[in-house]
Each structure stands twice: as structure tokens, then as C-alpha cells.
Amino acid sequence: MNKEQESLLLNSSSRFLIPQGVKISYGTAGFREDASILSSTVYRVGILAALRSLQTQSVIGVMITASHNKVSDNGVKIADPNGGMLSQHWEPFADAIANAPSPQQLLQLINEFVEKEKIPFDGIRPAEILLGRDTRPSGDALLEAARQGVTSIAGAVASDMGILTTPQLHWMVRARNKGIKASEQDYFDQLSSSFRCLMDLIPTERSKFDGINGKLVVDGANGVGGAKLKILHKLLNDLDIEVRNSSEDEGVLNDGVGADFVQKEKVVPRGFGSKDAGIRCASLDGDADRLVYFYVPPETNAQIDLVDGDKILSLFALFIREQLSFLNEKEAIKNYHKARLGIVQTAYANGASTNYLKHLGLEVNFTPTGVKYLHEKAAEFDIGIYFEANGHGTILFSESFIEWLEVRSNELSSGSKGSEAEKAALRLLAVSKLINQAVGDALSGVLLVEVILRHMGWSIHKWNELYHDLPSRQLKVKVADRTTVVTANAETVVVRPPGLQEVINAETAKYTQGRCFVRPSGTEDVVRVYAEASTQEAADTLANSVAKLVDQFLGCNSS
Ligand SMILES: CC(=O)N[C@H]1[C@@H](OP(=O)(O)O)O[C@H](CO)[C@@H](O)[C@@H]1O
Ligand SMILES: [Mg+2]
């Protein structure tokens, strides 16, 4: 690094001193904290993004959001060249520079890292960073901090993309690096045109959606997703969508609203109630990368029937499987290409969903919690579908399978036009454009659910009947040091402290259909306990007993 660059960095970093006594770490979803202490962190992430852009010679994204956290929090995460999460290999460096106590130590760390990673740091090569933020009031100032971080690396350019959903920014980064049109309007155009294409391919006998089945009411978590969905909706004639709890309304972000609240509490979000009984409803989270559906059963006040990420996954899997079977009928003769379809879940997936998917003959894989793990696994298949129970997920198509599909759909359209196989190929191609290939996206997810329900001719009730969730309970236990819990086998088995897994096994064995695991959270200072059993009472008792065991082993009061 030359002297000019060094003084540029020293100068600008002295304007972003880190708060005393705060240690921050790049967790499951980037850095997240109270917004008031984040400006130095975001500034430094700006530097990190510029270095990543130099190293990969690609456009990198910086998203300022704290998703479903309360409005006074904020956070920052990096989108890598393919639109996915920052390479895990860089996370320790992110931690190190975020916590460097002084500008001099920051400079030293950067110098060491540049050397170790052989980052071409000559001030000549261009670096470009796309910056986006959600609707939080602290977002504007933090975006400026990120911009200053980026521009403290000579030659790096920051482009402010404005207020966006997290998946929109990831989509833009991916599109830019593929050399395709990447504006927000391009995003809306791609989603709306592929949605229309899927609507046009619905079998005519199934296309009648009537009355209550027609309308969808969406809870926008008082965040960015509601406003964006309204824009998207204007491009779609065929959907009857009402958006509530949009950022343009009065309510507070994530306060008694949103996918996280709805999934955890299983009650209606604000603005919903018995008047909505039977109507198909959906909830987005604060940055619109999670989606769950629900309906209000008749004669209840606040309780809902939740249609969670596992059921969205099952619906997608059924649809994709159907299209593959149409394609494969003919393929036995010509150009045979048997697509490998893989499902990826975490241990939090309801056991009934896993059984259901396995009964369909599908390959189900498990990874640790966190989208970066699920995404990585799903990318190993021709078509990989991943979802967390909380509604974060997407469908990935391999490049080679897309190429094969394109060739095949051309052949089919010249040979057997209008055949089921041709339609199936066109549907799969449309799904690959509708569903966000970079990261889980509640907006594209809503559109895909809506079109598949029409394709199947199903109400939300029919969909919910695919299988019945096993009763489950999730608890949090505060412990002295959660890092003393070490797990294996996709977090289903405790390896340390010794003896804990044995007592969990002994407890679980007492319950019919009992399943229970514990793991340290990656986003909160707690150990999470998850239990399933044949009745709600049994699931509750199992979770409580295991929470007590965790407390005994790790010594602190449970909550
Ligand atoms: C049980 C659960 O819902 N865990 C969430 C939560 O992670 P934890 O590591 O469990 O705190 O936040 C993650 C980031 O948003 C999300 O990916 C994950 O699914
Ligand atoms: Mg989110």
C-alpha cells in the first residue's frame, strides 16, 4: 500500500472511532447491534467490501438492515459476486477489522490481509460496491458511513441503490456480475414477466380461482417489503393483493407484525383479526427475505393456522417434481438427462415435513442453521430447494441444467408444440427467472406460491392439509457461556459438554415420536432447545425438561 493510500485510510478512519468496550462479530447474518454504535462497523465493512471487490474483480454489495430486529437496531452484511453471502473464509477478517481498536491497528490489519490474500492493491484496478438499505431511520447515516469506507480505498466506487429489500440488492449484485440488466425496474420486470409466463401455462381446467380463494392479504412488517410489493403488484393484472402494515402506514417496524413474529407466536399480526377468517394471508419480515403464509380459522380471535417455510418448500417440491416427471416421460428416448432434485432443510424443519418429502421419494439433506449453509448444499444439485422453517429459502438451478432446459424447450417447441413436456420445460425456465437465485426472497416467493396454488387449483386450506405438523416447542436458555456447547451432525448431536447428549437421549426416549436437540444460537446470547412429540403437552414437557438439563450442565438460570 502506498503512502497516499495509507494516509487516506488513517484520515477517514479517524472519523469513525469504535465505541469503548464493544465487541462485535459477523454472525449468521452479518453484524447486528443497536444502530447508535454501528457507524464505525459499517464504515469498516465498506473497506472490506472494496477489498473483496478488488480481489474478485467483481461488483460487491453492502446491505444495511437488521431484518426482523427491533427498529432501533441496525446491521450490515456483504453480498458476494454471485449474489450470495460473503465467503465464510473472509468472516474472521470481518471480525478482526470491525474490532480493531485504533486507526493504526486497522491499517496494520488491512496491510497484513492484503498481503496474505494477495489482493491486487495498486490503486489502478476498479472496485465497485452497490449500497442498499432498508427503511430504518438510522439507515441513511449508516449508508453514508459505508460510502466513506468504500471510498477510502483509492479507485473504489460506491453506488447508492437506495431503499431496497435485502434480496433485491443481492439480485442486483448477481445480475451486474453476469452482465445482465440490473436496475430495480429490471428486477420488477423479470419477476412480473416470468410470473405472467407461469400464469399462461396453467392448465385451463384448473385456472378458476373464485371468491375468497382469489384474494391475498399481505402483512409487510411495516418494512420495505410492503411498498415494493405494491409496485410489483401494479405490473400484475391477475393478482388480487391487499397490502397491510406497509412502511407507508403508521406502525412500527417489526412491532407485533412480520414473518418472525407470526411464525414464533402463531398469532395474527397487528391489523389482522377475525374479520379475515378463512382468507389467504402472508407475512414478510422486515427486509423481505422471509415469507410465511397463514389463515385465521373461524371463531378464533388471535390464533392462526401457520403455513410455514417447510410447507412452502413442500409446495415448491411438488410442483418441480411434477414438471420433471412430464419432462422425463419423453426423455427416456432422446437426450436423456435425469435432473437431480435435492431438498435441504435444517433440524428445525418439522419432522412431519421431512417424512412427507421422503415419502415423495425426494432426497432430503440437512445442514446447520443459517442460509449460507443451506444455499451451499442446494447448489450441489441440478435443482436444489432449501427452506428454513421460518420462511427463508429459495430454489437454485444449476447453469448446466438451465442450458439443457433451453435446448430441450427449443427442440420440443419445433417438434411437439403444446405438449406437456414442452410446457414443463417452459415452466421450469420461468421458475428459474421468477425465484431469486441469489438468496431467499419473499416477493418472488409470494408470486411463486400464488401461481402454484392456481396451477394446482388449491385453496390455502387444501395446501395446509399436505401433512399435519407434529406439535413442537422452542425454548431459549440463558447460560454462562454458550460457546461451550459444541454440536455435530447438522447440530442434532451435542459433542460437548460430555454427557449432555446422553441425558437428552434418555429424556427424549420417554416420548412417542419424540425428537429434541439443543444448539447455541448464532444471533442471540442463548442456547436454543427444540422439541417435537405426538402431543403439544408432550412437546412442551420434553422441551422444558431438556432446558433444565442444559441449565444444570451449563450453570445459569434458564428463562
Ligand atoms: C431457529 C431460528 O429460527 N434461527 C434463526 C436465527 O439463527 P440462530 O443461529 O438460531 O439465532 O437467525 C438466523 C438469521 O436470520 C436464521 O437464519 C435462523 O433460522
Ligand atoms: Mg430478513
TrEMBL record:
Keyword vocabulary terms for this entry: Isomerase, Magnesium, Metal-binding, Phosphoprotein
EC number: 5.4.2.3
UniProt cross-references to InterPro entries, sorted A to Z: A-D-PHexomutase_a/b/a-I, A-D-PHexomutase_a/b/a-I/II/III, A-D-PHexomutase_C, A-D-PHexomutase_C_sf, AMG1_II, AMG1_III, PAGM
Catalysed reactions listed for this entry: N-acetyl-alpha-D-glucosamine 1-phosphate = N-acetyl-D-glucosamine 6-phosphate
Domain Alpha-D-phosphohexomutase alpha/beta/alpha, residue spans: 57-89, 127-177
Active site location: 67 (phosphoserine intermediate)
Record note on cofactor: Binds 1 Mg(2+) ion per subunit.
Binding site for substrate: 388-390, 519-523, 528
A Gene Ontology molecular function term of the record: metal ion binding
CDD domains on file: PGM3
Pathway it works in: Nucleotide-sugar biosynthesis; UDP-N-acetyl-alpha-D-glucosamine biosynthesis; N-acetyl-alpha-D-glucosamine 1-phosphate from alpha-D-glucosamine 6-phosphate (route I): step 2/2
Domain Alpha-D-phosphohexomutase C-terminal: 476-548
Keyword Metal-binding: yes
Gene3D superfamilies per UniProt: Alpha-D-Glucose-1,6-Bisphosphate, subunit A, domain 3, Alpha-D-phosphohexomutase, C-terminal domain
Domain called Phosphoacetylglucosamine mutase AMG1: residue spans: 182-292, 308-458
Sites where the protein binds Mg(2+): 67, 285, 287, 289
Enzyme class, UniProt record, top EC level: isomerase
UniProt xrefs under PANTHER family: PHOSPHOACETYLGLUCOSAMINE MUTASE (PTHR45955:SF1)
Role description: Interconverts GlcNAc-6-P and GlcNAc-1-P.
Protein family membership: Belongs to the phosphohexose mutase family.
The protein, known as: Phosphoacetylglucosamine mutase
Taxonomic source organism: Cicer arietinum
